[in-house]
Every structure is written in C-alpha cells, then in structure tokens.
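User: Can you recover a sequence for this backbone? Please restate the input before giving your answer.

Assistant: Of course. Working from this structure:
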C-alpha cells in the first residue's frame, strides 16, 4: 500500500504561495494547513470588537487590525491569522512585503466548537513565545464568555480573568481599555442545541 508523503515547504515557499492564495492558510514547521471560514456570530463579534477597540485607540500609539494581518512566531516557525491584533508603536515585519508582523501587543481569537481547544492550548503556547505580547483574549461565539490572559511582569506566567455576564465590565490593561461585555455580544443570537 502506498504511503502518502508530506510535502515540506520552507517559510519562504509558504510566504510566496500565501501571497498568491485566495484562501488563508496556517504554516507550521514546513506544513501548510487551510483555515476554515467563520460563522455569522463569529463575524458579528469580530466587527463589534474592532469597532469598539478602534474607537478607544483613536489618536493613540496603538492600532487594531482584523483577521487579514498575518502573525509570525519564530518559536516553532508558525504563521497564522488571529481574529484581531493590536500593535502598539511601530510594527515590525518579517520582510519587506510588510504583511506579516512579529510584534503584536494583544492577540484575539474568537472561539468556535472546532477551534476552541486549538486556540486555548497549541496556539496559545506558540503565542506565549512572542516577546512583545502582553495579552491574549479568547471570546466565545457560542455563549457569553471572554477570557483575558495577561503576561505578568515579574514572572513568565499569565494571569487569567473571565467575564461571563453581559453587564460585566471587562478590561485590557495593556491599552487602558474598559468596556462592557454586552458591547461585544450586542445583537448576537446563539444557536440552541
């Protein structure tokens, strides 16, 4: 029985292919993986997040970007597209194409049943190795739930805070942001199981 042989791609090969691709792909240690689309609820939350944080960051040294901005972690040679990215100060890029950053301040992932475990474990392990990263935010698209991980300055540990009520105020200390959970979930209708 023939054995399927995995094709190895260098980082340069991946970036060349990805810049021509009509779909988004992740890259991990020589392999390329197609990324799936997102639900309506996912997109509602992403839009609300970018709008709310964007207004907060007006006239600031930080900016928020949507899911088309690629992020590279040198650890494990990983490339991906978070759902939103905050960059404070000058962005640093992987090369002169200026489409892949290496210095995010905050990364946001909006969870779905198929991505939750991956975003919470493997992806977070990669993200932890980005020196500039101060916070990692998980937002559930199936229920009211936000979790903010904050890097501790005196230890290589991350503190977790969860927000599960629409009336709760949630915050991002790295950009001095405070907002209410209901701003992210406004109009979102959850599927009944």
């Amino acid at each position: 029985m023939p054995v399927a042989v995995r094709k190895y791609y260098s980082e340069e090969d991946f970036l060349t292919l990805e810049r021509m691709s009509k779909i988004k792909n992740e890259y991990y240690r020589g392999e390329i993986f197609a990324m799936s689309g997102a639900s309506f609820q996912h997109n509602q939350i992403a839009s609300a997040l970018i709008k709310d944080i964007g207004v907060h960051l007006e006239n600031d040294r930080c900016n928020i970007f949507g899911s088309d901005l690629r992020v590279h972690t040198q650890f494990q040679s990983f490339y991906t597209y978070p759902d939103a990215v905050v960059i404070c100060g000058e962005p640093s890029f992987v090369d002169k194409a200026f489409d892949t950053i290496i210095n995010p301040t905050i990364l946001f992932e909006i969870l779905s049943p198929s991505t939750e475990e991956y975003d919470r474990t493997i992806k977070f392990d990669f993200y932890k190795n980005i020196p500039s990263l101060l916070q990692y935010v998980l937002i559930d698209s199936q229920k009211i739930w936000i979790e903010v991980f904050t890097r501790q300055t005196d230890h290589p540990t991350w503190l977790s805070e969860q927000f599960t009520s629409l009336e709760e105020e949630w915050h991002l200390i790295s950009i001095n942001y405070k907002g209410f959970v209901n701003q992210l979930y406004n109009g979102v209708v959850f599927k009944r199981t």
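That completes the design. DSSP finds five helices and 13 strands in the chain.
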